[in-house]
Amino acid sequence: MPEQPYEPERAIAGTGMGGQMDLGASEAVTLEKPPGPDGAAPEDKPRSLWSDAWHDLRRNPVFLVSALVILFLVVISLWPSLIASGSPLKCDLAKAQEGSQPGHPFGFDGQGCDVYTRTVYGARTSVAVGVLATLGVALLGSVFGGLAGYFGGAGDAVLSRITDVFFAIPVVLGGLVLLSVITSNTVWPVIGFIVLLGWPQISRIARGSVITAKQNDYVQAARALGASHTRLLLRHIAPNAIAPVIVVATIALGTYISLEATLSFLGVGLKPPSVSWGIDISAASPYIRNAPHALLWPSGALAITVLAFIMLGDAVRDALDPKLR
Amino acid sequence: MSDNLTLPAQQSPAGASAEPLLTVEGLTKHFPIYGGFPIKRKVGAVQAVDKVDLTVGAGESVGLVGESGCGKSTTGRLITRLLEPTGGKITYAGHDITHASRRELAPIRSEIQMIFQDPYSSLNPRQTVGTIIRSPMEVNGIEPAGGREKRVRELLELVGLNPEHYNRFPHEFSGGQRQRIGVARALALQPKLIVADEPVSALDVSIQAQVVNLLQKVQQEMGIAFLFIAHDLAVVRHFSQRVAVMYLGKVVEVGDRDSIYNRPRHPYTHALLSAVPEVAVDDEPEDRERIRLAGDVPSPIMPPSGCRFRTRCWKAQDKCATEEPPLVRLSDSREGHLTACHFPEEPTTEARDEDIVLDPGLKALEDENAGTD
């Protein structure tokens, strides 16, 4: 098309008017950003909403505590030998139900296994199930929910009914039925089961969030420019609709960890000789009078882990979406 | 690519003046209403826009005015094809774009742009100003001389913003500045037609003038045609060469600025103009007519039969209920001034012998005041 020359000098008729407004803006920006010792961003690189959220999070004690706990859990689940020297499968029946001893601070369980070592190694299962199941749920749920919300119509109606069906399945009953027929003794069936039952929750949230975002004028503006569906979804809708998904997924992570423990407790999740807090809690519960320590340590570890993830989710929610508080 | 973007009509400026840039004929948009149980079915339709005719010439500025909910914005969104028309025909530079697909529209998208009402929701909060203004060029694959970034800086300067604010986010700007960013985005592709959907009604009065002047400047200097949608009659009078008045999804009167503002014929136009507040200088007696309508705009789900304004019109007769008045040139009107009315008013805004007050409560109040004077 013919290039029309612009003359920026002549551009603004009201002389000084543009300059005055710019002055106002730069004042406002400097007020927003007090010169901090943490070497704030350079002058023409202001904070985006994400860095705003990070700025809030760094000052939130709830976030700091839960993040530290989670960091610790991740490290020991990757390298449990850092703090536990023995093997969780080395058991000595002669020491069954014995209490705390030098070198065995948590005592022994009903099979004479070291409770400390087993508790440390149990973190790996919990973190793996929690993180992988959450990733799967978030991915599946946001893709299905997002597309349904964006395109609407018959596909949306069908998907909404499917999520309703999945919501109607009782989690524990479904687990007993589905997982009892699976013989594989790895974390994968458990993760698969959680993803299968968990995605409708995220799907609903993603759907609603996308429907809200797509009505914004900036999406209409991009459409008026001829932007493709892919561009609209990835550049305009996803960045503005993802926050609630992240928040709910983080909180759900904690509940997935406890769900894994529940299923293992019931004997349909992981089974011995796998190491899991749920298995240990189940095994120790008959001896609660004689050896309460064997029950308390894995239970305490589970409780702290779940609490840490839920607190992290709360902190992320406060930072990303203050309206949900 | 850029060769394809220029449509034949623009290459011959002589032909463009004869044929309007944009022609809208019988444009209709009905939003279906679904209801019923257990199976939802269509139970009615909101007749947002009903058989609207409109033309915009190249480089011309046309104002579209009317009350809230009369279908102005829907008309604008139909023309930019953000909504799918129910019926009628939209012709842009000789191309029928009424039901054109995204692919067919691609070469035209760069020539028709839109400015939105709300400067807060029309800019993506997750993108920097540079990204926002650059995106029209990215989407349409346009690589201006000197690069896209240089072009963005030029555009920022053109709309009176500091080009150094390229990397800032929309939330760091005031409402007026944000609307300027929206204007810069609309100008990025050097469009031929801009649909401005109430571009200043969300702004402070002091900022409104700046943005209107900016739009007027780009309209005159760059020769861009505007469809200027507004409910502020003073702004439209300032900005538009021709004005169309809408009521309940229909154009009731259209004409050049002087005809509409000084020689209106349709009773609704009279009522609208008489409602514009005006500062009386000194103690001069007011020489304008005064009309007070009663009630609300009827529901667009079941609009009145015949003339849609008849339920609030002081001149309505039986004919108005049975026969829909066509949009035609009346005997005393000038060339190009069309009115849809069976019983048009005199072409003047001079004060009447008696004010028309249709609201009974207001009438009682005014009579009381007149009695005490």
UniProtKB/TrEMBL annotation, chain A:
Transcription among keywords: no
Entries under InterPro entries matching the protein: BP-dependent_transpt_permease (IPR050366), MetI-like (IPR000515), MetI-like_sf (IPR035906), OppC_N (IPR025966)
Annotated membrane topology: Multi-pass membrane protein
PROSITE patterns with a match to the protein in the record: ABC_TM1 (PS50928)
Residue intervals passing through the bilayer: 62-83, 127-151, 171-199, 241-259, 295-316
GO biological process, one term: transmembrane transport
Record's subcellular location: Cell membrane
Residue ranges constituting the ABC transmembrane type-1 domain according to the UniProt record: 123-313
One Gene Ontology term, aspect cellular component: plasma membrane
Family listed: Belongs to the binding-protein-dependent transport system permease family.
The protein's name: ABC transporter permease
UniProtKB/TrEMBL annotation, chain B:
Spans through the membrane: none
One MF annotation (Gene Ontology) recorded for this entry: ATP binding
Entry's Gene Ontology BP terms: peptide transport; transmembrane transport
Ranges where the ABC transporter domain occurs: 22-273
UniProt key word Transport: yes
InterPro entries: AAA+_ATPase, ABC_transp_ATP-bind, ABC_transporter-like_ATP-bd, ABC_transporter-like_CS, Oligopep_ABC_C, P-loop_NTPase
Signal peptide, first to last residue: none
Keywords, alphabetical: ATP-binding, Nucleotide-binding, Transport
Keyword Glycoprotein: no
Family per similarity comment: Belongs to the ABC transporter superfamily.
PANTHER family per record: D,D-DIPEPTIDE TRANSPORT ATP-BINDING PROTEIN DDPF-RELATED, TRANSPORT ATP-BINDING PROTEIN
Protein name: Dipeptide ABC transporter ATP-binding protein
Upper lineage: Bacteria, Bacillati, Actinomycetota, Actinomycetes, Kitasatosporales
